[in-house]
Amino acid sequence: MISRDSNLYKNIVTTWKAQGEQWLLQFPSHIQKIEALWNLEPIKPLDNLSFHFVGTSIRKSDGIEVVVKTGCDIESLDRERQWLRHFGGVAAQVIESDKALGATLMERLIPGETLKQSKQFSDDEQTIILANMIRELNSRSIISGAFKHIAELSKDLDVLKGAVDSRMLDKAKGIISELTLDRSQDCLLHGDLHHDNVLKHKHSWKVIDPHGYVGDPTFEMAVMMYNPLDSYPVNRPLRKTLERRMEILNEHINFDMQKMKAWAFAAAMISTAWDYGDTKKLLGIPFLVAQELRS
Known about the structure:
The chain is of the alpha+beta class. The protein has helices at residues 7-25, 27-37, 74-86, 123-138, 166-179, 238-253, 257-279, 285-293; strands spanning 44-45, 53-58, 65-70, 94-98, 103-107, 111-114, 148-149, 187-189, 198-201, 204-207, 213-215. Strands 1-2-3-5-4 form a 5-stranded antiparallel sheet, covered by helices on one side. A hairpin with a 2-residue loop joins strand 9 and strand 10.
């Protein structure tokens, strides 16, 4: 069911190596166990999967359309399940889960169109939708659990030593250090909130695929500055788009402009580090965004 030529297969092997290869080897029987456990019709994989398997099915007992998510990184999937349950109403609903199988059964969002796919909205209108989502998420109190603090992401930058201007690296580390000193206002963050992770469900929007971090509420806006990589307006320079998005966020959430710019830079550098760790190349929008925001 998972082709050796697919990005999902390659990403699993690259990221989890022997553990990933073993999981892929057992995948057919793994899916059969999930189908039997929750009395599901054969699970159909979604397109363009990256690091985890996600598929749709129908529960035989009541005909409800569902989504199944599973993967070999059981601990991260369990944190995701905790996060989704905490943000019930604004996040896709968790129906069932099985930690031993690393599997979660969720409601299927209908029509399930992502914010990026919603071409009827301008970039300004999409940014307002994301601002409203951020405000809703930030209104929830923190919960206990094994969620990483965003301060820990600083060490991920070390892979860039010698590959980028040391001043950019020092700036990113300095921002993370400075903006995580005071943790009195910390909250539970999605950590990967962008246009591909907000989906239309009936007459509202719901969020999926959280990373799940604890930290400064303003950090929540940072990822949407560089991701998805192909959702920028083509009729204006990148810098103008970044500035305009921050203006809208400032207007609708009252986030401080300088703090937003700082977090957007730091987050873009972290994404650059992750990319470089995999490819040993400085490619893509995150590094371009970091360069735009470095001053």
